[in-house]
Amino acid sequence: MGWLPLALVFAGCGTGPEVGPAEPQGDEPSTVAIPKTFAPFGEGYPGAGDPCRRLGESDTTRPFLDHETTLVGCPDPAAAGALEGRTIAVIDGITLVSIPQSGAAVVEEWPDPPDPETGYNATADVFCGFAGAEPTDRCSAGVKRRWGSDGTTLVEIQKPDGRARAIYFQGVTPYGADSAEADGSAGWDFTVEREDDWNEIRYGPERYRIPDALVIGG
Length: 218
Hints:
Blueprint: H1 6-12, E1 40-45, E2 52-55, E3 69-74, H2 77-81, E4 86-91, E5 94-100, E6 122-129, E7 137-144, E8 153-158, E9 164-170, E10 173-177, E11 190-195, E12 198-203, E13 206-211, H3 212-216
Antiparallel strand pairs: 1-2, 2-3, 3-5, 4-5, 6-7, 6-13, 7-8, 8-9, 9-10, 11-12, 12-13
């Protein structure tokens, strides 16, 4: 028997099943944005561009906030597991992580240009209360960052009586408010209670909850 052409030998050999695209193996985690209902702020946690974000106060996050920890939301369990904190809940696919605070709040400045008409760098609603009531109502507020020559930030809150209340900040720390004889505020006490990423301010019978995200941006 003579030698067969090489091409015919290969033609007669089985080539096996045709290999196509690999089938997905189970459900793969997908990265999702942190919804606004979680009050996210900043450009990522622990660093800019990271998938997790710090969370402020909202109806969703309020049960998990306290003054000794930072609340962070992550789009998937893998990102949450990379943080040095404790997973406390998963809500609507967002993993909430509680991270102990190691010291004073870190102040980051965000260069939002002021509005040419109002002069505000940003506006938002803040929780407010009057006549000694809990701050459960909402008041419109605007912020003027680096308003003072010493770096003071001004937050103006529009009250239901049509007047504005000014609160002064150094970094994220409020240190005073405007006063007037006309409304009796000249003799009011000014106290602050720090709660995670926001401050609750008591000024006489008025109470305000102002988040860091309004003061420094995010």
